[in-house]
Amino acid sequence: MKRFGQAIVAVLVFSMLLPACRQAATDKQTGTHLKQADESLVKANRYLVRKEKEEIDSFISRHGWQMQETGSGLQFSLVESGNGPEARRGQTAVLAYTLRLITGDVIYSSEKDGLKSFVIGHGGVESGLEEAVLLMKQGDKARVIIPSHLAFGLLGDDKKIPPRATLIYELELIELK
Fold first, then answer.
1. What confidence tens digit (pLDDT) does each residue in 6-29 have?
2. Any idea where the domains of the chain sit in the sequence?
3. C-beta of residue 130 within 8 angstroms of C-beta of residue 74
4. Exposure string (b/e) for 44-62, b if CB count within 10 Å is 16 or more?
5. Residue 97: which of 46, 140, 67 has the closest Cα?
6. d(Cα 15, Cα 114) in Å, to the nearest integer?
7. 84: CB partners within 8 A, 6+ apart
């Protein structure tokens, strides 16, 4: 009878351990699947960034523009130099602008929508626009191409800017406060 009791205890212990082993195997498989999914997303993202860069480079070449690329991928060209102070974080920038998609379609402009004003470094605008303004001084006019990852990314602005849109700004830094 003692052996029978030991056998029942062994079966009970085994039956409790089996689901835990299955769960561990499932967790390991799920972790593997998640890792594979992450790697696939990274590859897809790299591909999209590379394709957008090729599109931007082709656009610049077709238009004969001379642009400087920053480390983030922003393309910048000073069109006209001003003689005011350099832009700094914490200042309010006031801009006259025209914003186009890479297709050439004008989507926003200060002529129609009013001057754009924002505090540099406090967000609220595209990170690429803040980066561009920090390369300017009051009175400068610049042409800027902002890749989607520095603009409105995968979603767009839910108004006129579509998902994954490359933006082209014609900017004039009117005032720094």
1. 444 444 444 444 454 444 444 555
2. 1-64, 68-176
3. no
4. eeeeeeeebeeebeebbee
5. 140
6. 72
7. 137, 138, 139, 173, 176
* Residues facing residue 94 across a β-bridge: 117, 175
Task: Indicate left, alpha or beta for 121 from its phi (over 0: left) and psi (-120 to 50: alpha).
Answer: left
Tokens of residue 66, six digits: 């001379």
- Local structure of residue 150 (DSSP, 8 states): G
**Yes or no: domain 68-176 corresponds to CATH 3.40.50.300:** no
Q: Which helix H or strand E contains 131, and what residues bound it?
A: helix 127-133
pLDDT at 67 over 60: yes
**Closest by CA position to 160, among listed 111, 105, 96, 117:** 105
Whole-model pTM over 0.70: yes
